[in-house]
Amino acid sequence: MVKHTATSVVTIERFIIEQEKLHPEATGELSGLLYDLALAAKMIANKVRSAGLADILGATDLENVQGETQQKLDVLANEIIVKAVDHGGRLCAMASEEEPDIIEIPENFRCGKYCLLFDPLDGSSNIDVNVPVGTIFSVVRKITRGSRGEMEDMLQPGRRQVAAGYVIYGSSTMLVYTTGQGAHGFTLDPSLGEFLLSHPNIRTPDVGRYLSVNDSYHSQWEPPVQNLMNYYRGQDGNRQPMNTRYVGSLVADFHRNLLGGGLFAYPANRRNKHGKLRLLYEASPLSFIVEQAGGAATDGIQRILDVQPTELHQRTPLFIGSKNDVDAALAMLGAQHKSGDSLAPVGSVGA
Ligand code: AHG
Ligand code: MN
Ligand code: MN
């Protein structure tokens, strides 16, 4: 694993300011939004770490637009983020995994030029058993006229992102983000309440050590996907076998692979024919980060960052991580599509 060491003590606030200086035209609005998100991350970390003590474990009797039962912490994390960013004047609208429609900026607050899309709590099913969970966010610039954000502003391909990040509430709380100038990791020092730079310029090894996939769907995958997983496991002799590491929290699986090299796969299957993960606030932001770290991400047919969204909560198959391993997925899945095969291409992105 590439050793990521930081020598001097740099807070995330200072790092954001340094990064802003790389953009002479910057107004400071994006920096302000990133501060607010770092604050929200600290607040969510506090709740996650004491969830077992404050009767905020477990499920609500509510269901979200995904048809999933909302965990109390899903709802709480969602509220924390909205309240941390809705009044700063940097956003014209938001979208959350936990809310069916666009979240408007309240009438009495000024609108800004950015849109925020986020998964407030990723890996919810793991909360009650103390397995790492996370938060994922994506920032795009408003492209429509007028002050208030519209659906068209939200439905932009991932390559239009101006920032993306995630927080992992693990053995330590880390925030990893990019604004297109590399991917950088910050670790929360609980005694200071500060995120300190711990992983500058993260680089993902080209060849992965770990394969993160839920094998229980094996019989539901199309044959090319089954063959791809056999390839990753070295069963066809064309590759050093990868170790399996599957936490069931995308952020936890992604983070380990980002630092140590690996491939996370959530293919389409007969039950989830467009895959399970959401394009706009799971696949796109993590794809921006992984590309900034030298990795790659595809839906099996094209680069995730080139997919043109059509719906706020649309799902996509996802193969993300070490570049060579993502290239193998494209070669073994995309090739079927390129051969002009009449079947719907495996891993095809659904509307
Ligand atoms: P979320 O909790 O935000 O709905 O995300 C859960 C996702 C993702 O974190 C994880 O990789 C995946 O669900 C696990 O799905 P399976 O249990 O089907 O493997
Ligand atoms: Mn999620
Ligand atoms: Mn979630």
Q: Keywords for this structure?
A:
single chain; 351 residues; alpha+beta; Fructose-1,6-Bisphosphatase, Chain A, domain 1; D-Maltodextrin-Binding Protein, domain 2; 2 domains; 8-stranded mixed β-sheet; 5-stranded mixed β-sheet; disordered C terminus; binds 2,5-anhydro-1,6-di-O-phosphono-D-glucitol; binds manganese (II) ion
Compact description:
With 351 residues, the protein is of the alpha+beta class. Helices cover 28% and strands 23% of the residues.
Task: Walk me through this protein's architecture.
With 351 residues, the chain is an alpha+beta fold. It folds into two domains: 12-199, 2-Layer Sandwich (Fructose-1,6-Bisphosphatase, Chain A, domain 1), CATH 3.30.540.10; 210-338, 3-Layer(aba) Sandwich (D-Maltodextrin-Binding Protein, domain 2). The chain is 28% helix and 23% strand. The chain is built from eight helices and 15 strands. It has helices spanning 12-20, 29-49, 72-85, 151-154, 223-232, 250-260, 279-292, 323-338; strands at residues 59-63, 69-71, 91-96, 103-104, 114-122, 133-141, 161-169, 173-178, 183-189, 194-199, 210-212, 243-244, 262-266, 296-298, 318-321. Strands 4-3-5-6-7-8-9-10 form an eight-stranded mixed sheet, sandwiched between helices. A hairpin with a 5-residue loop joins β1 (59-63) and β2. The longest helix has 21 residues, at 29-49. It binds 2,5-anhydro-1,6-di-O-phosphono-D-glucitol and manganese (II) ion (MN) (2 copies).
